[in-house]
Each structure stands twice: as structure tokens, then as C-alpha cells.
Specification:
7 helices; alpha+beta; five-stranded antiparallel β-sheet
């Protein structure tokens, strides 16, 4: 699963992590304040392909159909995203990448929710596979949002949660974005090319992270618990 995540770098930073020659004139600026504790329902930076060109947008994290009166979905199991009626159209037509530095998961200790921060060992950004119902260059009368594609955990990460985002290397992230990539190939990427657990590290952080509030943000939230107290 992925219930919160960090997105604290600029558009240019994330763009150049995917395309080293991304031009500054196109990607510089247009940034919001660094976000270290993004919760569902808030706008997030999403990378996408528009008419074959690498681009970005701000999308609400969460999706529900017009017929639903419930909290929006924030994650989509890869199994359901591929074939389920709910997400299938988004998988075919609305693949995006949600960049960030890492994400949060929770365990229960002494009856309280204990947050953990998960990030790459090499310090590189994470590129989470996402899907959206956004139809570029079209007026839409329905809620527009995005969800993060998830898969089963393995290795030590399963002790924190049984699900995790599908996180891709830059080359695979670009293939995922490309609408010329067939649905079958995109499925292969999501199911078999996600960065393995051993390339991540994680640690406990202060429970102040648990408060879902746009003002509850700051780099201190990522500090290991021993340093944050």
C-alpha cells in the first residue's frame, strides 16, 4: 500500500532524473512548496506523456467513479488495474508516474500506529507507477484523480506492510509512460520490473507524521526516530 509519501524536489529535479537533458526552460518553475507528508485528496505532481512529449500535471490523489458515494481509492492492485472494470480503462489510456523521495507505512506497536519511512538505498528518487482518468485536451464532467499501482511485498518489507508501490527505474518508467507501449508490455513492466526490496531501506519516524494536515510537513518528519526526539 502507500498511504502517504514525500514529494519535496522540483519538477526539474524529477524530470532530469528520468531524462538528463530535460530543458530547464520547460521544466524550471511551476513548483509548489516541498511536501514531506502528502496525504490522499491533495494535489500531487504527476509525470505523463502528452502527444508523445514528456510533460507534467497536478492531479488529485484519489479516484472514484461518478456513481460512488465513498472515499476515493488511492491505490490500485496491479491485478485489478489490469483486468478489473474499475481501473482497466485508466491502465490502457492514463498511465502516469508519481515521483517522490519515499513513502510511509505503519505498524502497530503498544496499540499505537507507528510510521516508517521507506526510500531507495542509493538516494535516487522513486518513480511510482500510477494511473489516472485524466483525458488531456478534453473537458471532463467527472472527478479527475490518480491512484498509485501496488504489488505484494516480499523480503523484510513485508514486516511493515503486505503491499507496496510499484517503483520503476528511469528506463522502465519512460516505457510505462509511453502510450505507444502496448498494454501487454506495460503489464510486464508493472509485474516484473519493479525495483526489488533489497534496494530499499526503512526506519521508524516520529508519530507526529500520523497527523494528516497540509501544515504538518517538513524535512524533520523523515528523521529516524532516534534523531527526531
Amino acid at each position: 500500500m502507500c498511504g502517504r509519501f514525500e514529494q519535496s524536489e522540483t519538477r526539474l529535479h524529477y524530470a532530469r532524473a528520468l531524462l538528463p537533458d530535460a530543458p530547464e526552460y520547460k521544466w524550471g518553475g511551476g513548483d509548489t512548496l516541498p511536501q514531506y507528508n502528502i496525504s490522499p485528496g491533495r494535489p500531487v505532481l504527476a509525470l505523463q506523456m502528452l502527444k508523445g512529449q514528456f510533460d507534467s500535471d497536478r492531479l488529485t490523489w484519489g479516484y472514484r467513479t461518478p456513481q460512488e458515494n465513498r472515499k476515493p481509492w488511492i491505490n490500485a492492485r496491479i491485478e485489478k488495474a489490469l483486468s478489473g472494470r474499475y481501473f482497466r480503462h485508466m491502465f490502457r489510456e492514463g498511465r502516469v508516474i508519481i515521483p517522490g523521495g519515499g513513502w510511509f507505512e505503519w505498524t502497530v506497536e503498544d496499540g499505537k500506529k507507528q510510521p516508517w519511512y521507506i526510500t531507495r538505498r542509493n538516494g535516487q528518487p522513486i518513480f511510482m507507477a500510477g494511473i489516472t482518468n485524466l483525458k488531456s485536451f478534453a473537458r471532463q464532467a467527472v472527478e479527475v484523480g490518480t491512484v498509485i499501482v501496488t504489488e505484494d511485498c516480499d523480503g523484510g518489507m513485508v514486516d511493515i506492510h503486505d503491499r507496496r508501490p510499484v517503483v520503476l527505474e528511469p528506463d522502465d518508467a519512460l516505457r510505462w509512460l509511453d502510450m505507444e507501449t502496448s498494454v501487454e508490455e506495460a503489464a510486464h513492466i508493472a509485474q516484473l520490473r519493479s525495483i526489488p526490496t533489497e534496494e530499499f531501506m526503512w526506519w521508524k519516524v516520529d508519530r507526529v507524521v500520523n497527523r494528516s494536515d497540509p501544515s504538518n510537513s517538513g524535512k524533520h518528519l523523515l528523521a529516524p526516530m532516534s534523531e527526531s526526539r
